Amino acid sequence: MALFARLVSFSLVVLFAQSGLALGSMVDTVAGTTLAPASTNMVIAKAEPDSGKKKSASEKLWRSQELSLLAIGLGVGDVDGDGKNEIVVASPSTVYLYRFSENTLSLLTEYSAGSLEIKAIDVAKIRKSGPPRIYVTAQNRGSVASFVLEYKDGKLVPVIENVSYFLRVIDYPTHGPILLGQSKGLSQMYDGPIYRMEDKGSSLEAGDRFGVPLKIPIFGFTIGDFEGKRKPLIAVYDKNDHLRIYNPDGKRLYVSKDYYGGSDIILRWYGPEELRDRVKDLNTEQVYVRPRINWWRPTPGAPAQVLCISHSSGTMRMLSRTKMFEEGRIMGLMWNGDALEQRWSTPKAQGMIVDFTVDSLSGLSGQRLIVLERKKTDWLAFLLSRSQIKIYDLQQLVSEGSTGERNESEK
Question: What is the mean pLDDT of residues 6-23?
């Protein structure tokens, strides 16, 4: 009965999102009053003191206070050009730029996307000149209207707008970050091949086709040397939340039995004014933004690991249109030639893991696993949601081989 009640309650929210009500236009406002995240000027959290003793993976952790926003994406990069990485977080309507310094997270500025619905973000230095930019996938009702932000004079400024491609940055082993784009179709969400996008400064232009099989969409895949033989393999979440391994020719080498990934971020087929045929709309296949997956090499020359997201589901994944993910964690998986084996994971979180990246941050030694968690989700009132940034000592997680079996709330 408890599960049934949860399903009914959550299904109502989903039906609202599908019924033509422009939830994406609810740009963090209530009763006409614009609201800002809690602690807009300063978000403070302190790292736990290092006693010099060997600590568990959970103790090698920095966490922010809870943020009053519905987080959907994360990026890290030196956006302001000061030589230190900043943290970028996106909600469905706003991009927030945070500075991390001396174990303190402070909000520098934010950018409202207006009536656009933000679906995904990346931070990367694609151009040879200038600081890293923020590449934002967004939709205007059913159309793709992505844009690019740059930090100028203390503000996030749109430098490129109305890009008709879904955008995603992947880290290619021999080239570094590459910006990719894919079009939206009429009969299928992802239309045609994935292209390598060129940032010309004031425009994004589609270049050569990127060499992945057509069956693989732009979101939810990575390419890495998972065998340690300098031969690329492709790891990808499928639409049913299983992990697959392909060779570059598109031959499937593996499909996991376990579930990975999981997202509640919907890509829209139509705008509200086009949803007159409700029955037809409810019969349309729901398409979600597949979350980030990446590769990471523990030591130089070693085979790369697959870094992916894992969740349990409150609906046991029985309802394709209802997403209730919880107990999220990041896993490091090794490819043994036949299957993927778990080597480590973060502890289970209470809520949903939305996004993650591996990078360096000021004042913290070594590479850090930076994770964006959504602890509470409310798609009808974004500011009632609760999100949190967590920063893990990645080498410590690997060396101690954390299994992540215990929920962080139990510690």
Answer: 35
